[in-house]
Design brief:
The chain has 385 residues and is α+β, with helices and mostly antiparallel strands. It folds into two domains: 132 residues, no CATH class; 219 residues, NAD(P)-binding Rossmann-like Domain (Rossmann fold), CATH 3.40.50. It has ten helices and 16 strands. The strands form three sheets. The protein has an eight-stranded mixed beta sheet, with helices on both faces. The protein has a five-stranded antiparallel beta sheet with strand order 1-2-6-5-4. The protein has a three-stranded antiparallel beta sheet with strand order 7-3-8. Helix 7 links the parallel strand 10 and strand 11. It is elongated. The two termini are 40 Å apart. The N terminus is likely disordered.
Length: 385
């Protein structure tokens, strides 16, 4: 894979009062989530340096899980599975800094011996490579979810901010059941769940929240039991109803959810035509996905406050020769699991405030036969149907 290389510069004050440039070479490998220009990079580095010098002088810092730090030929190299940063400078002792960072004992008040070192640590913190070690340790003792969001630099307390979010899941089949699993695992505690169907034996091979003892029970009841078994504090509203008109969704509107996940598959096009525009008109964010047998799609996340396009702007299929997406009497479980996991990731990132990891622009189609992910933009640029 080709490497996309950028240089980010941060300023460090020298003893003479002049300012020297600290060059951080950035190599991006894998998907490029987002980029920032040099002016913003410098501004954030300066702002964060002030933060380190003032409000968090007593904090100790550690390397973010998933990152490694090494010294190669006089360069400090910090890497994750998708990004790599290199720093070259003779103004600080790399061996000493690396040892403290790895141990999680780097104290910005007592261990930084020069403005250059302060500028370096500020840059690493700004880019999400270092996190407060004392905060992580205390959170880990309070909640097993404390390390769940270590990949989200902007909000180390994301797992706690999700507890009060309200999510409505429309449809508890192969997609909705998988999304629910991930949302419960991330710490969400408030759900509205809507479905009209009963659990059948063939559901057990595709929808893993249901047990043999759930067969012939309403899916909403069985799903509520699944959530309560994992969270004694969960609050659930269950609606056993088929969606055939806007009136069937008034309870969802009155629930005032922070986000609605649309997973109804009977039939998917009609249900989407009813639910997505209604949520848009009521300024409620939505996420949508669907599957065929060896293919599927998800996204974009529609938020009327920031999304550039109305839900009607996107196709529900990647091949225009296919006249409709029909209700399937069979499905391939790994496709369901893949789509539901990707939907859940978008939802979780959105709710915890990591919107830089959320796609508001593209619908993503997945073809497992060819191993292809295709991102499709809106068919037309409009904010209204």
């Amino acid at each position: 894979m080709s490497t996309n290389r950028r240089f980010l510069q941060g300023n460090a004050e020298c003893g003479s009062g002049q300012r020297r440039h600290l060059r951080l070479r950035t190599d991006y490998r894998g998907p490029l989530l987002h980029t920032r220009d040099r002016r913003n990079a410098c501004r954030r580095a300066d702002d964060n340096a002030f933060l380190v010098r003032s409000s968090q002088m007593s904090a100790t810092w550690r390397l973010r899980p998933g990152w490694s730090i090494t010294q190669v030929d006089g360069e400090l190299r910090v890497r994750s599975d998708t990004r790599a940063f290199s720093v070259t400078s003779s103004q600080f002792c790399l061996d000493s800094l690396i040892e403290r960072i790895r141990a999680g004992t780097l104290n910005v008040q007592s261990d930084l011996n020069s403005p250059a070192e302060n500028s370096l640590i500020s840059a690493l913190v700004t880019r999400g490579m270092l996190i407060p070690s004392d905060a992580v340790h205390s959170q880990a003792q309070e909640s097993p979810l404390a390390m769940y969001f270590t990949h989200v630099p902007s909000n180390p307390n994301s797992c706690f901010s999700l507890k009060d979010k309200r999510v409505a899941i429309l449809g508890l089949g192969g997609i909705g059941a998988g999304v629910l699993q991930h949302l419960v695992g991330s710490g969400l505690d408030h759900f509205l769940m809507l479905d009209f169907d009963l659990v059948s034996k063939r559901n057990l091979e595709l929808q893993f929240i249901y047990r043999v003892s759930d067969v012939d029970r309403p899916k909403t009841d069985a799903a509520a039991d699944y959530v309560h078994q994992r969270s004694s504090t969960a609050e659930i509203v269950s609606i056993n109803r088929r969606v055939s008109s806007r009136a069937d969704l008034l309870d969802v509107i009155n629930y005032s959810p922070d986000l609605v996940v649309i997973c109804i598959d009977d039939p998917p096009e009609a249900s989407f035509d009813i639910s997505a525009p209604l949520m848009w008109e009521n300024r409620i964010p939505t996420m949508h996905g669907g599957v065929m047998i060896r293919s599927g799609f998800f996204g974009p996340l529609f938020d009327p406050r920031v999304s550039p396009n109305h839900p009607y702007s996107f196709p529900l299929r990647s091949d225009s020769s296919v006249e409709s997406i029909c209700r399937l009497e069979m499905a391939f479980s790994p496709v369901n699991s893949t789509i539901s996991a990707l939907i859940a990731a978008e939802v979780i990132h959105f709710l915890c405030g990591a919107t830089h990891l959320v796609d508001f622009v593209h619908r993503t189609f997945i073809d497992l036969d060819r191993g292809v992910f295709t991102k499709v933009q809106a068919l037309r640029n409009n904010h209204v149907p």
